[in-house]
Amino acid sequence: xxxxxxxxxxxxxxxxxxxxxxxxxxxxxxxxxxxxxxxxxxxxxxxxxxxxxxxxxxxxxxxxxxxxxxxxxxxxxxxxxxxxxxxxxxxxxxxxxxxxxxxxxxxxxxxxxxxxxxxxxxxxxxxxx
Length: 129
Known about the structure:
Strand content: 15-25%
Radius of gyration: 13 Å
Low-confidence stretches: 1-14, 92-99
Order of helices and strands: HEHEHEHEE
Shape: globular
Number of helices: 4
């Protein structure tokens, strides 16, 4: 199994996410074409995926997902420029939906891209519709 942090399927400020070997393999595929292989809400989630895979993962909303950065418009620009391959919906209660900016980005991704499940993780491929 992939090297993850923490326990169960969610995350919190003190526990990272558990990253499956399937997810690690996905993140390691075609990484050189993107500035960030993936983006997810909160640095705790991002760190778990980045440490497990060794690839750059954007932390939307900073440490716990409450900072208004990047904005929805900035995130959409990064996606349009092909800088982010995947959006990971890590599903952690502490990060998901705690900020208007993170909620807007999550809603925009869900409305415009098809979700798939890799291991137990919901992933959206941002490289095309």
